[in-house]
């Protein structure tokens, strides 16, 4: 059996003062984290958890504590909380915002942090795709640049496709 991994790193570290309680709660669900002097270091040793299991009461509290922050994620979290309104505060459930967002929730959160931050002008998310058995679909990577105005993504396969297309155009004889 082949195991696929997508190790990831968010850079630079994020000052705790730049995050709302909800953002801190969710980012530490999607990623592993270490609190360092410069801020929170986010990473994933295996892969980013796109649907973490969360304690409903803790999520409700983080949401309530974050209403004063300008945030794109708040409406989506509110809709999700409405869907689980009958859930006990001590219950755990899979946190899935796919139906409410058209991108990864962590990208939206990171962009909000950059927009409000007095010190960060961007964040990057670098991902390395690997697997435990040699397979052509198990390798590669991607880089995402998140800044106040946008989220830019490039995969290694996309970069190679562009380079190969450019090479093929150079090899074509000029129309005469």
UniProtKB/TrEMBL annotation:
It comes from the Bacteria. Keywords: Plasmid. This is Uncharacterized protein. It comes from Asticcacaulis excentricus (strain ATCC 15261 / DSM 4724 / KCTC 12464 / NCIMB 9791 / VKM B-1370 / CB 48). The lineage of its organism: Bacteria, Pseudomonadati, Pseudomonadota, Alphaproteobacteria, Caulobacterales.
């Amino acid at each position: 059996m082949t195991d696929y991994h997508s190790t990831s790193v968010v850079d630079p570290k994020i000052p705790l003062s730049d995050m709302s309680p909800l953002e801190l709660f969710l980012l530490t669900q999607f990623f592993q984290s270490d609190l360092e002097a410069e801020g929170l270091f986010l990473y994933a040793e295996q892969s980013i958890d796109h649907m973490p299991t969360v304690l409903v009461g803790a999520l409700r509290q983080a949401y309530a504590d974050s209403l004063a922050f300008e945030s794109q994620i708040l409406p989506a979290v509110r809709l999700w909380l409405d869907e689980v309104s009958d859930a006990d505060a001590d219950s755990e459930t899979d946190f899935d915002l796919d139906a409410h967002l058209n991108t990864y929730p962590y990208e939206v959160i990171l962009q909000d942090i950059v927009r409000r931050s007095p010190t960060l002008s961007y964040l990057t998310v670098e991902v390395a795709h690997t697997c435990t058995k040699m397979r052509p679909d198990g390798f590669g990577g991607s880089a995402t640049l998140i800044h106040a105005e946008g989220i830019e993504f490039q995969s290694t396969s996309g970069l190679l496709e562009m380079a190969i297309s450019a090479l093929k155009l150079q090899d074509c004889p000029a129309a005469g």
